[in-house]
Amino acid sequence: MNNIPQITAEELRQRIIAGEDLILIDVREDDEVALGMIPGALHIPMGEIPYRTDDITNDAEVIFICRSGARSQRVCEYLQHQGYNKTANLSGGMIEWST
Questions:
Q1: Pick from 1, 2, 4, 9: which is nearest to 61 by CA?
Q2: Rounded Cα–Cα distance for residues 13 and 44 (Å)
Q3: pTM score over 0.85
C-alpha cells in the first residue's frame, strides 16, 4: 500500500513551467512556511489534515510538500488509507526545491 508516487523538485518545476494546473499542499508548520512556500501552494499543517479532508480533492493529482519529504510522505499514506488515490509526494521536500 505504500507505493506513493514521488515527484522530484526538477519534475515539479518543469510541470509548473509547462503551465500545468497543479494542486500543491504544504504540510509544514506555520513557522516553516513563513520562510517561503512554492507559489500557489495551499498551506494545511500536517496535524490538520484529518480535519481538512473536505479541502482536498480526490478528483485530481495533489502533490504534498514538507521540509524533507518525510511528513508529506506520511500524509500521502494516511490519505491513501482514506481512499485518496491521486496523491504524490515531493521527494526531498523544500530542501531539494531550494537547491
A1: 4
A2: 21
A3: yes
